[in-house]
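If you are new to this repository, start here. Below is one unmodified record pulled from the training split, so you can see the exact layout before writing a loader.
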Amino acid sequence: MSNELGNPEIGNVGGAEEKEGTGMELEPSGKVPKPSAKPAKNGKSSIRHTNPEAEKMERILDIPLVLSAQLGSTRMLVKELLQLGPGSVVELDKLAGEPLEILVNDKLVARGEVVMVNDKFGVRLTDVVSPTERVQKLR
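And here is the target side for that same chain:
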């Protein structure tokens, strides 16, 4: 790197150059120096030494999913849907007392029964679909 006067050494202390666009100084040999691991204020190294498998898991832990509990379902015509009003009864395909299905992103992951928890509905899981079955249903 040279200055406007053509002198490569003026403005560069000790012959160090700046790598264009990075703000990083190059060593006189032209190589970028490796960053050194400096201890953080708490005395621990700022470089993380973690298990690669744990890192992979950490990446997916914050992915949002839609969990729903399906009591049952039915099919109806548009004209039947338009006739619904307060007090209407819709017959579902499940019998009373049958477990409801727990779906994650519309995929079955468990079955359970309805419970009351502090005046709110909840679901007690009675059967969880095996991981192998869940993976097969994704295909």
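Two things worth knowing about this chain: Residues 1-28 form one domain. The mean pLDDT is 74.
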